Input
Amino acid sequence: MGANPRMTLDAILLLAYGGPDSPADIPAYLADIRGGRPTPPALLAEITHRYALIGGRSPLLEITQRAADKLAAAVELPVYVGIRHWRPTIAETVAQMAADGVRRCVAICMAPHASRLSIGAYRARLDEALATVAASFDSTQQTTLRSAQDASGMGNGRGIAVDFVESWHTVPAYLDGIAANVREALRRFGDHVPGASEAPGALNAKVIFTAHSLPASILADGDPYDRQLDETARLVAARLGLPADRWTRCYQSAAQTGVPWLGPQVEEVVPQLAAAGERNLVVAPIGFIADHVEILYDLDIGLQAIAARCGARVERTPMLNDTPPLIAALAEICLAQNGTRMNANEHG
Output
């Protein structure tokens, strides 16, 4: 896909969560997540053990950088990567963008579903980075960086304006990529899923859509997270022509904080389904984009152990990572910022 001649963007900023580059980085990584609070020794040991089982490090940065490189080639614009809880930090990346002369960019979190608790944290870090870089400029340069909270998102000719994409959970290429991966996983059970235009026959497997759990208190605040996840799951199921009784939705990777988190958890759902006779299960982590510890350990090791104990077979769908469907989805979002401020979710 070539660059659109009307595009007013100078660059694209991909925002990702982060992960340690080596076992030695784990204490500092956890300290950043915990806002500087010490990590209890037992928790540090457990997290270190989990990373040891997946190779001692997170592949998230490498995957995100590969996606950035492919997106840059697709839209013919520079693509930067900023990491919320590791390096390069969002602040470091914004400083580099300013030094490179970027005037207007679109910022996309590598998480499709909006929540004030999660996506809001990315936005806050971006605002802090913009304010810090703005303050570092000498006033004689007359360089002003705009906050990501500026509703207009239009440049003033003197600095960086940021179009912050709140969510992109219904972008067609994203949905198509997930649907294709679910279809392939169903084939491993001998299931043929032709698509929405033709109802599938009796399916041997049931599909479980998962996403990262968040504190249940967000529901009382009208947070869109749960609703958007439901929309994604329904749109993917519709693409596959899945009957309502052949798919379900749940959460995973809840933290042990002493407060209720969104549920049910996949670790509960798999044994329940197995006890009800559903022993062929496809797990599709729709709330995640790339491989990281909550996929490679929580699902591929922890959940598989639970499945084995209850006599279930679980096939996890591959992540989009840096595959063509993800690049197409990101490119679609970027092109939607072509001076029109289109909502990337007005699709599906």
Summary: The chain has eleven helices and eight strands.
